[in-house]
Design brief:
Two copies of one chain form a homodimer.
Chain A (H helix, E strand, L loop, with lengths): L10 H4 L6 E6 L12 H11 L9 E5 H7 L3 E3 L7 H10 L3 H10 E8 L2 E6 L4 E3 L14 E3 L5 H16 L4 E8 L8 E8 L5 E2 L15 E2 L1 H13 L8 E5 L24
Parallel strand pairs in A: 2-8
Antiparallel strand pairs in A: 1-12, 2-12, 3-7, 4-5, 5-6, 8-9, 10-11
Chain lengths: 270, 270
């Protein structure tokens, strides 16, 4: 993973980060994505189809699933050689040994395991279930799996640059995934790739209404954007894979999804 | 806490839960809330000030801070008697012993403690830092603390009923707070009170595009709504405490924030 320096927001700019209103639109009529597809023209056609013209400061949230498909991250499970470690873990977790093998290949370490549950630290840094491997919306059977994109931060930067090149507009790009959570039920949207938009908003030192420094200091900004888009794109819904947001009024900070990964030494739960 | 049955969404209705577009507006010009204030007329004035007229299916996200203030949940720290347990924990966590005392009074158990960190299971069920106790935007000094509302699910229901009574419209109400997370940096919006809108969306059994049941089954719906509103209301920002959402197209399920609390037996991290 390209791991840039943590890109957080200067205090002075953070005050710009609260819009009065926000318009969110799911891009209609996008085709099923095939390996090798160039997502940018497909997304720009969807923007036009929605009757929109991109403006500086717009944001596009793209589900990781179509990025993975365009990268050809589809694995035929019948070609997966299962290691002894994966076989043992598959028995413990009661999961398909081939999927467990792929999870281990995609992960730096196992965080928690239980019957039906396999939570790992992904090679991209974040902690999630099953390394984000997806079996839905593939080829209609259980014999295929979709891995997460190779380097979503880098892909987000490439898409951001290509959109700038084709349209002349500077838009924020978020590549989103759906994560479960400790303590809370239900999945939410998270950012696993970020470009041209803050990942973390640093409000440290910002005063409250009485001039007193805020205790709450950091906002998981790109995760909020991903979750807002999730209300339109839904779960694993390839029919609505790209969502457009206008009015965010975000400061021009080039964040990285890796900014949102809590360092192990700061994490009391890993 | 009033703990109703888990209210999740019938599969048939879940298909209605993805809008094409969404408009989100921060209500302008709300006054500072004082103990005893009736929030409903204040919110309805804000809706008019925004040039909006409420419609069935709109949602209002209200920060817990103004609910707490209206309930008079402000504590003068100089009146707090510190127990021996709180004193010891304050030394370990390097926090104000009076705040630690209030955290313990508001909590069912301590989840994690470290220098600068005190995470507990709140009496309302969720796990969060410092029991959601807030010292910002109070009276301009450190001598006051604001506790979370007494029963945010019940308050959300009361507000939902009063809005229905005054305007004839059925709107969803979410009372939101800002939570940090294991594994990930930055706070996000979460729902701690819910009425007239789903808390969890149950997508179990819903087919994907190829007719294959989705693996991802549950969406933390009210948390997504709270996080979307968070993009406008910001952190601890009493100037933007109420956000209006139009277009969510949520099914008429009367959720509870308690639906979003993961049962201990299902939680591998608590």
């Amino acid at each position: 993973m390209l791991k840039g320096p943590v890109s957080v927001l200067p205090v002075s700019d953070s005050l710009a980060a609260q819009p009065d209103s926000l318009q969110i639109t799911a891009l209609p009529g996008l085709p099923l994505i095939q390996p090798g597809d160039d997502l940018v023209p497909i997304i720009l056609e969807g923007v036009s189809r929605a009757g929109l013209a991109l403006q500086d400061g717009d944001a596009l949230v793209i589900t990781s699933k179509i990025v993975s498909k365009s990268e050809g991250r589809i694995v035929d499970l019948n070609t997966v050689e299962v290691s002894a470690a994966a076989q043992a873990l598959a028995v413990e977790t009661r999961k398909d040994p081939r999927i467990v093998e792929l999870v281990l290949r995609e992960s730096a370490m196992v965080s928690r395991q239980a019957p039906g549950v396999l939570v790992t630290q992904h090679r991209l840094g974040f902690v999630s279930a099953n390394a984000g491997i997806d079996q839905s919306n593939l080829k209609g059977n259980d014999e295929w799996a979709l891995l997460l994109p190779i380097d979503p931060d880098a892909t987000a930067r490439q898409i951001q640059a290509a959109v700038k090149d084709k349209t002349g507009t500077a838009v924020g790009i978020v590549i989103s995934d759906s994560h479960g959570r400790p303590f809370r039920m239900g999945n939410v949207g998270v950012a696993i790739g970020v470009a041209g938009i803050p990942a973390l908003l640093d409000l440290r030192g910002r005063d409250d209404l009485f001039g007193r420094p805020l205790h709450i200091s950091m906002q998981g900004y790109a995760d909020l954007v991903a979750s807002a888009a999730h209300l339109l794109s839904g779960e694993a819904n390839e029919g609505r894979p790209v969502v457009h947001l206008r009015g965010l009024n975000f400061p021009l900070v080039d964040g990285r999804a890796s900014d949102l990964v809590r360092p192990v030494e700061q994490d009391l739960y890993r």
